[in-house]
Amino acid sequence: VGEQGDLKLPPLTALITDFPQEHIDPKHDPVEGMLGMELLNLFDVDFDFRAGRVRLYRAGKGAAVAAASGLLEVPAAVINETGLYAIRLARPGMLQPVIALVDCGSTFTALNWKAAEILGLPPKQDTAYAKGPQVMAIGVDGRPLQLPTFQTQLTWTGNLQSTGFEPPPSVWKPWQAVSVAVGDLPVFADALGDGLNPYTGPAALLGLDVLGQRRFILETGQGRQRRLFVSPN
């Protein structure tokens, strides 16, 4: 772990429970657990799926690694006490973004119906959704969820300026098109709620079908402001 193999992991608190996700793909080794933000928040984390490698750097070291590797900075933030990262997700040619949770544990990207409307996807009953495959998701409670999909490219926007959201740099190429699942997943209402009321606004889940296309680095820190560094193409 780390550049010299000298990063020591502190004691962590593990939740012991049934883990239905271990049965998702019986052809591969069973998934026995999940690394959460309690661990990842201690380090800058470098995900390089093409190289089959994950690296943990001391907090604050990831930005220099990203700059040396030509990765672009994507503004991000920690959403409430969950510790989840979020970025502004958009479609190419559209600078109105929606909030997107960065989920390294999800194999697919998803939008709720309000986010789909903002990003210009067909309405809920449109026949366009009958053309694509259905995605079977498994919630943390183990119950199956069947969601329609829509093929689209995705991109991101920067911070809000006086004239709108800042577009990505010119060297940035949108992620390759994926079949985005569309539906009101419970995670949106629960993770983005205030503890008393569920969240009902537009939201997305950015999964590994998008993130896994390129190398990216998650930056940790003390405040809520974060940075995500992504390969431009």
How would you portray this structure in words?
It comes from Grammatophora oceanica. This is Peptidase A2 domain-containing protein. This protein has about 230 residues and is an alpha+beta fold. The chain is built from 6 helices and 15 strands. The strands form 3 sheets. The protein has a 6-stranded mixed barrel. The protein is globular. The model has no long low-confidence stretch (mean pLDDT about 85).
**Number of strand segments:** 15
> What is the CA–CA distance across the termini?
27 Å
Physical arrangement of strands within the biggest beta sheet: 4-5-13-6-12-9
What would the average pLDDT be, to the nearest integer?
Answer: 86
Counting DSSP H or I runs of 4 or more residues, the number of helices is 6
Poorly predicted regions are none
If you consult CATH, what is the topology?
Cathepsin D, subunit A, domain 1
CATH superfamily: Acid Proteases
Largest sheet: 6 strands, mixed, barrel
Kindly state the percentage of residues in helix: 10-25%
SSE string, helices as H and strands as E: HEEHEEEEHHEEEEEEHEHEE
Structural class based on helices, strands and sheet pairing: alpha+beta
* Content of β-strand: 25-35%
* Chain oligomer state: single chain
Q: Which CATH class is shown?
A: Mainly Beta
CATH architecture: Beta Barrel
Number of domains: 1
Protein name: Peptidase A2 domain-containing protein
Organism: Grammatophora oceanica
